Amino acid sequence: MSTVTDAPPLAPAPAPKERPPRKRRRLTPYWLLLPGILWLLVFFALPMVYQASTSVQTGSLEDGYQVTWHFATYWDAVADYWPQFLRSIVYAGAATVLCLVLGYPLAYLIAFRAGRWRNLILVLVIAPFFTSFLIRTLAWKTILADSGPVVGALNSLHVLDVTSWLGITAGDRVLATPLAVICGLTYNFLPFMILPLYTSLERIDGRLHEAAGDLYARPFTTFRKVTFPLSMPGVVSGTLLTFIPASGDYVNADLLGSTDTRMVGNVIQTQFLRILDYPTAAALSFVLMAGILAVVTLYIRKSGTEDLV
Amino acid sequence: MITVTTKDSSKNSTTKNGTDTGGGDVRLSGISKTYGSFTAVQPLDLTVPQGSFFALLGASGCGKTTTLRMIAGLEEPSSGTVSLGEQDVTNLPPYRRPVNTVFQSYALFPHLDIFENVAFGLRRRGIKSVKKQVGDMLDLVQLGEQARKKPHQLSGGQQQRVAVARALINSPKVLLLDEPLGALDLKLRRQMQLELKRIQTEVGITFVHVTHDQEEAMTMADTVAVMNAGRVEQLGSPADLYENPRSTFVANFLGTSNLIEAEVDTRNGDEIVLRAGGGKLVLPVARCSAPTTTGGKVLVGVRPEKISLTHADEAGEIPAGRNRITGTIADSSFIGVSTQYVIDSPVCPEFEVYAQNIDRDARLVPGAEVVLHWNPAHTFGLDAAQSLLAGTVDSAGVETVGPDEGAAA
Questions:
Q1: Which of A207, A225, A309 sits opposite B152 (nearest CB)?
Q2: ipTM
Q3: Where is the ABC transporter domain positioned along the sequence (chain B) (predicted)?
């Protein structure tokens, strides 16, 4: 290795030698992209095309479906199921806000105050993933059971009176109400909020806090003017990672909710697997996707993250 | 090591001017910092006169940055107090202290532009119209054009000036600089040294400057405190420290010193006569910081540029009354303005001599027998109980000094 570089080579000698590696280097990115592209093509692009065509088909299960460019399916789907769409957005939005409120202090603690406990707490944050999503959600059924201690405590503290008044619980129950669904969503997606928040907080140079303090900023002002703005990339990716899957989720609404708390995910699931109305299910999926894209685009525009380093 | 030229003594007067008022002095009394069993700063008393440019100089890990951070309030002292003028600020959080810091890596806010970075301190104190002040300050550091750029769009030197502007705009009682030029290349560092000195003269604020670069400390500061192993070894004007080091650490850390072990022979009025390897050396009493009992050991020091070299054949022409040592030239390197010789002498194996290239004697080549001689007034005496190598490149920062060695502070 060293022998080549040690001797000063003649001027024309290295030119032809260098050419082949340079060409190969230019191709390297594409080779690296290939597995990902193939994966996307087979498991995302092709099913998308397939579903898109399904959504404009008509027919019945017995006679088979044909592409008839029947776009009215979309209109019918939205007209019939707009309350479920709205609910999805509201529940997912509420869960995202709750995740942010619960997750930010914890992420802040892990990033700046945890010291040698940092790794342990991070493991605890993702520890629930070692149990199945379904089992964890079912566990909430026990936690929020009508005769359980949680509901009893909330009742005696008159919290349920407030939530009933807000319309997210009914009577003495928490289970089968919007609150239960929102709690389940919050619980299940909390790690997806904490981890990106932690990553962006952890990257903040501690000396910036010192500099802000040195420049007359009280601790809370330092947070407001320095820490929070610098953690915006984490806030944005955390809220997206929480909101997007939460708005398409159907397990929480299915296990913890009632027929009054059905989200659009539940509708799609029923259409696909029980009613077997594939065109409507496909159309609903596309409307949901378009809705999420619109919300996300608006959000990113608003939060102006491209301005951050 | 870098050769240090002797500074003119005019700097002393600037220090004195500020001392009389005493209103804005930084006073550290018995201040110390320990982390568990490790003592970063030994109990320390230090007064920085108002309006002076004060440097804390030392190798990494000597406690200089910790001392600075205790003044800023970023580090809580384990004992002692910090006062600014009449005010005891020991228990004040950083945001309540009339002190600002230029951080080593600048710590500019990456999400704010240059204007907002500089305006940060003013806005936190509730000042609404900052435009004029920020504009003036950016002009002072010659960055008026860059006001709307983000920090990462500026070069290192420009970022450094933003950091200075951001701190200075608050007119602090004291500006603390933590190795502010460490990240810059040599040429830019020179330029910024002059720039900082100019700004300091212009605004008249007390600067406390932490550095490991002895040349930087000497160029900029009125007063330098040399720190080693958590204590101040010696404090004084750059010229005073250079000419009269009182410990081997200072003698070696600031420039280069030749140290010879010698034995006290007789005391003759205000001169001490010493014996070293058969020869006799004369040392002024006033320049000896060590006890001098007859028969006791003393380290005799002399700076390389004070010494003249004469070929052994012409030894008779050397005027009487000069200290002399014989030796053989082991090595010589031509630097341009001077030639640096390493002399192998019975009293000191590697004696360094810097000779101005005025009239070069062609016989002074490696292997030549020479006589080294110098004016006894340039000799200084140090306590022989300390390591000869303290403060040299190899041992810098790790050398701990003996307790009886009388750290002069």
A1: A309
A2: 0.78
A3: 26-254
